[in-house]
Amino acid sequence: MRELKAVITDPITDLVRVQVTFTSPSGDRASGCTKESTATAKVRLPEPLGDRDVIVDNYTRFTADGANPPALRLCGKLGCTPPTTGCTANSYDQALMAVDAPEHTYRDSERCDGKWLVLDFSWRTGPACSDSTDPACSSRLGDRWFFRAKKSGWEPIGRTSAGGCRDVQRKEPTFPTSLCVSLVPLSPSLHPGYPPPSASPTTGVPVAG
Length: 209
Description:
Layout: E1 2-8, E2 15-23, E3 53-56, E4 60-63, E5 73-74, H1 89-98, E6 106-112, E7 116-124, H2 135-138, E8 140-150, E9 153-159, H3 166-171, H4 177-180
Parallel strand pairs: 2-3
Antiparallel strand pairs: 1-2, 3-4, 4-5, 6-7, 7-8, 8-9
């Protein structure tokens, strides 16, 4: 890659938006550019950064909050100030992200004591339409996950479609019975099981007479 540079793309407001550009042989390995190394691109601001955040290439965000000056801190998928782990909607969103729940997932129910969490959720599988009586529009799948609280957020323990505590307490015996004892199994329509494919029909074998 050549001509690496960083430029400010918009007037500075409460954010500084920076774009990093370069020219490249576009994957031409015959050019000899077959290894990776770090490089630096500098950009000079027209005024001090202050407490502004910096966004690079529209998506990657850095903040001075919580960083050791003059360094900036890289923000994650949950933003620059992730929600505190607990029984809150924002914290449940972090739990869904931890298990790669599909986009546009609905939280159906939560059982939480601040240290442990049971989360039932579902997501639509049919077309987007306004007729909720049409089975094709209301079809969905669902899941149930159990979590423990960690400093970094809700940590998944495991999943099940069964009711009660048996499955989760096999993996984590200290999971509190009070949060799982009255759980009912998920509906088969939300978490269907599929039998293994049947064996191929046996073809006829000639038998000598």
